[in-house]
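User: Show me sequence and structure for the first protein, then do the same for the second.

Assistant: Starting with the first protein.
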Amino acid sequence: MQYLKDIPIRTKFVLFPLIGSGFLIATLILYATHLNSERQALAHTEQENLAKVGVLSDLFAQLSRNHVRIFTMLSSTAEFLDEEAIYENGKKTLYLIYELEKKISQLTRQFTLKTQEEEHLSTLIV
């Protein structure tokens, strides 16, 4: 720090703000770089993951509704032993399950899936 004592005060008043401005510019560049990478990550999440979650939650809701239909139909068989009505209700539910299977198998065409997601999907389809 001895060399700072030898510098005239006028030079110090010019030099220190320049050094501070240099650090400020470097900090702003780092901030802008980080902000840009976060923006790209958010855009990727928004485009890819949120759409995937929306489709998966819709499919899950449809599967849940079919599950409730099946249990309602099975519990009502004890009260009403009309085989034709049971057959008709079961047939509608079965067709809905086939449609859901088609939608689930189309997930790989709609989205790029990670390896773990593909493994879960393959166990679900089989």
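Switching to the second protein now.
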Amino acid sequence: MHSSIDGTGNQVSVTSKPGDEARAVCVEVNTQPSLDLRRKHRRELTELILGRAVWLEPHDRVLIESVYRHGQTATQIAMLVDEDARKIRRRIRGLVKRVLSDDFVRTVRRLTRSFANEQREAGKASRRGSAWNEVRRKVAEECVINGRSLREAARALNLSLHTVRMHHAAVQAVLEADGNGRCP
């Protein structure tokens, strides 16, 4: 038996037996969008992006939701906010790249785990030895989640650039170790 799709979107099955002529049987294929695997993957990716966008800052989240939930184009958004459409497209691409990155996922996991540990240890006096103390958590949020440079993070957190650089290096080491299967 041999199957193929003809020009009308129908699946054609051709069967042949020794001594018989080949005969074609047309079977209609359901072409609903939910059965199109490309659209399914696109929908799953969209849901993934929207799910991770909750960790972004409000103005970035609104931008992602405008595009992926409400279906607005970058040109429409640019007209609304009076900016260049190329700048909006570049920002959307950067946000999507960031929320789909492995470092973003690992940081979110670490932040939620750190927050849960903080809630559990609320009565304890010391948290020494924790990989994600308060300053490190803030640096991770600013640099990895919000996508700020080290200098911008230092300014936003009112810390020295040296302090932010040291904490960022520690965050990157932990994220790299998580990516290699080792969890410090």
